[in-house]
DNA sequence: ATGGACTTGTCAGATTTTGGCTAATTTAAT
DNA sequence: ATTAAATTAGCCAAAATCTGACAAGTCCAT
């Protein structure tokens, strides 16, 4: 998963533990673990908080977060590419 | 909405009434009306049935249906374009 | 002003999502 | 190999969302 992969990188760079970030986000550790692995999706607010904690651009993480959701939506569809292109046109 | 616009066109081309299509899909007319206007989203099965009824490529309607969902997901996000591009890369 | 087509609003029931708990597994160090 | 810490898996109830149906409304032509 897009966001999960990135925040895992960031967490390891800064040598933080899942439970520390979980505490910051006020969720439990298993939940944070799931977000990192993309098993659960973070909420917008949590992504923003993570950007602050890691001191990276909010936009970067929000973009990955959104991309992950789009990917989940289209991944099993034969017409995924075409659909994406159509949306891209109209943005 | 992508799909709604298209099935309205098709319905008018063939001079059919909403209630006729609603009957085919086994839903009530208000529901069909909402699907056409994009107020409710059709389910996959209904889209396929509609393609058969209108005698158009299943793929065409499924693509529009998917595009509509993607659009709903990203439309209010500042990072929509970038996110879409990232997904496009990885398909 | 009646009738037919379509739309709007509402609502309970069904389905999904969510958060947190416990327990299992993996990892790292001694 | 044993322990302790970190991470993951599985489960369950509460909350939120989605669904289908109905009643009532508008709009338009006759």
From TrEMBL, chains A, B:
Query: One GO MF term, please?
Result: DNA binding
- Domain annotation HTH cro/C1-type: ranges: 7-61
Its recorded name reads: Helix-turn-helix transcriptional regulator
Annotated keywords: DNA-binding
Question: Does this UniProt record's set of keywords contain Nuclease?
Answer: no
Which Pfam families does this UniProt record tie to the protein?
A: HTH_3
Highest taxon, organism lineage = Bacteria
